[in-house]
Structures are given as C-alpha cells and as structure tokens.
Structure to design on (397 residues):
C-alpha cells in the first residue's frame, strides 16, 4: 500500500452525466490502480446507486447512505445555482463534516475538490490530521468563472460574489500543501496572484474510447452536436446564444444539418428550443453513436473557466470542434491544427460552414485532435503527472 488517501467531492461522481464527475472518477481510477488505500466521501453523503457501486468496484471504500429524494434534489438545485455556496441542509452538513473529520484522522493525504467544499472542510481537516497533506483541486477557478459571468450580465451582486470568492479561493490555494488546476491559463494566473503557492496543472482526463475509424463516411455526417450538463450555467447560456445568434446565420446560408443538444438536467428553457432543425435529446447515455453520426461539435461558451469536457470528449471520438476562445482557453489546442476558434456569431457560422464542406480540413482536424487527446487528456498521459504530485507530497510528510 502506497498510502491512505481521503477524497472529498460535493457528491458521488456520475461520469456519464457531467464533466466534473468524469474528472473526479478518473482520479479515483488512477489512485486505485496505483495501489493507494482510497476512501471517497460525497459531501451530500448520499448513495448514488450504480455510481456508488462503480466506485466500490474500483476497490475504493465510500461512505454514503440513502436519503429522501426530495430534499437531495433541492440540495443539488441550490448547489447548482451559485457554485455550491450553500447546500441548504445544516443537519446534513454537520453529518458530512463529522464524517470527513473522522476519515481524515487516518489519512496521509486529503484531496478536497471545489472551493466551496474545501472552504467548509479545510480547517477541520488540518486540525484533525495535522500531519496529513491537503491537496486542493479547484476543478475550475470559481472566482474566474463568476467574474466573467458578472461582466457579461452587468449584475453588481454577482460581481460582489465573485470578489468574495476570489479572496476565499486564493486563500485556499495559499494554505493548501498543493493545488491542482486543469488549465494552463489558470496556472499562469495563480502564479501571478499567489506566486509562493505550489500549483500544478493537470488537464482533465478521460478514458480513451475505441479508436475512430480511419476513413469515416463523411457524406452521411451533417449534424452539429452540443454536449454539456445543464446544472452548469455556462452551458445553458451557450446553447441559447448559439440558437439565437449563430443558428439563424447558418440556416440563411443553406446549412441543411440539424443542431442536436444533449446533456443531463435539461431545463425547460432549453427543451423549448426544439424545432424541425433543432433536436433536444437531453441525457445521452452513450456518446459514441452520437459523435459517430455528427459532422462536428460546438462549444460556444461566453463565460467559464477550466478546461471544457465537451471539447475533450469530442476529440476522443475524432470529431472536430468549433469553439469560442473562452471554451478553448488553457487547452493548448491550436486554431486550424487541432480545433477551430471563433467568437463572433458570423465568424462562428463561417467556421462551421468551412468544416462542413471541406473534407480535407475535417480529416486533418480529426486526426490531429485525436492525437492531442491521447497525448494530453487520456488517463495514460495524465496518470504519471497526478502520481508524481501525490508521491511528492507524501514524501515530504
């Protein structure tokens, strides 16, 4: 056994439903395979059926119990609305704190996901396990995402919330033994803001699906796909912006394919976009058949932070992506080589049309994008980076 690790996230990861879950689950896979004694605690303490069983099948101990569906749905709704500032159930939170403190006391390293969760637990963990190393995983820099949302909306309350989160999150980064961010941009930003902090950049990681066909039938691929969990507010904004500003331009220029929207927790406002040319599918259990049938994917995000799982997933299936600068930020992907980047509605529409008609461009982006996925974002590429961070922390105890 290499050491005891306690992992805490806001809930049990459901890797087929949202990108953050997929990222947490990938770490659990890596840590278990590397021979660590791993315990996972979901902060909502809720057993998640097949998702909890999947963690146990990795050989990981997890502490969760059934709770009533009604209060947990409300808790998750509150969590999604403003980045987990509050879970809404004080008694449940007290139970979670007590559970984490108990498990931290026997751990060599505690991996805390997401600033709002880490803020609730950091001092308790440090007091209960003064010799344990605390590794903070930001998932994305919450303050950066909130700042960008506030700038887009002009909402002063959102701006104030972003400023408060900035102070709190930077304090976490300063006090943690190490911090992991997924984006090259975020690492650079933290180097400027907290130069003394130990910050590591490890991109989001995914299992590699079966290798894409070397010579796909491009004539049968016409549609555009967007994939994203809609508990994450930037995804809803992106779909509405695309449908309102970009889709009419494409239709006016003769684009004959459909716009397919997939993702969990689909709100009614997105469902209402369905039409003869827009298909709203909601949760998609298996992404392979969907990507195999589509010409390209889009990531028209107007705000956000971190690295976008929708881009990484698309590359893993060999499907080229047209993305906004915000969506492509920090990935290291290059316009015209591994991705196409556009920000105005007209430029976005033009890049889609170019990719829809130029088979040579499609094949180049498909091949280069898949290679970039394997080199940067696959479990095989990322596992050594994660294990080096953890082994370094344990060696310094």
């Amino acid at each position: 056994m290499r050491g005891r690790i306690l992992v805490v996230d806001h809930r049990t990861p459901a890797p087929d439903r949202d990108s953050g879950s997929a990222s947490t689950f990938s770490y659990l896979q890596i840590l278990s395979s590397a021979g660590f004694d791993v315990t996972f605690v979901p902060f909502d303490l809720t057993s998640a059926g097949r998702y909890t069983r999947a963690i146990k099948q990795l050989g990981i101990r997890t502490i969760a119990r059934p709770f009533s569906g009604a209060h947990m749905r409300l808790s998750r709704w509150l969590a999604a609305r403003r980045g987990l500032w509050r879970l809404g159930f004080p008694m449940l939170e007290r139970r979670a704190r007590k559970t984490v403190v108990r498990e931290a006391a026997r751990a060599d390293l505690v991996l805390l996901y997401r600033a709002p969760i880490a803020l609730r637990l950091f001092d308790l963990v440090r007091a209960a396990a003064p010799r344990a190393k605390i590794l903070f995983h930001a998932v994305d820099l919450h303050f950066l995402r909130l700042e960008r949302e506030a700038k887009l909306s002009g909402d002063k309350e959102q701006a104030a919330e972003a400023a408060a989160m900035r102070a709190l999150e930077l304090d976490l980064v300063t006090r943690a033994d190490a911090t992991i961010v997924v984006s090259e941009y975020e690492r650079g930003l933290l180097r400027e803001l907290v130069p003394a902090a130990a910050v590591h950049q490890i991109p989001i990681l995914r299992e590699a699906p079966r290798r894409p066909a070397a010579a796909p039938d491009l004539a049968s691929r016409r549609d555009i796909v967007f994939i994203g969990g809609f508990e994450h507010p930037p995804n809803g904004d992106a779909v509405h912006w695309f449908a309102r500003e970009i889709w009419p331009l494409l239709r006016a220029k003769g684009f004959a394919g459909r716009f397919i929207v997939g993702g969990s927790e689909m709100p009614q406002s997105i469902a209402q976009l369905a039409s003869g040319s827009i298909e709203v599918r909601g949760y998609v259990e298996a992404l392979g058949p969907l990507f195999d049938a589509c010409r390209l994917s889009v990531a028209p995000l107007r705000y956000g932070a971190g690295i976008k799982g929708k881009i990484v997933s698309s590359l893993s299936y060999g499907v080229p992506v047209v993305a906004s600068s915000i969506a492509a930020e920090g990935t290291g992907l290059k316009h015209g080589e591994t991705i196409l980047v556009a920000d105005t509605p007209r430029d976005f529409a033009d890049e889609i049309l170019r990719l829809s008609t130029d088979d040579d461009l499609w094949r180049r982006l498909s091949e280069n994008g898949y290679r970039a996925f394997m080199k940067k974002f696959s479990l095989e590429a990322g596992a050594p980076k994660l294990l080096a961070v953890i082994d370094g922390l344990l060696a310094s105890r």
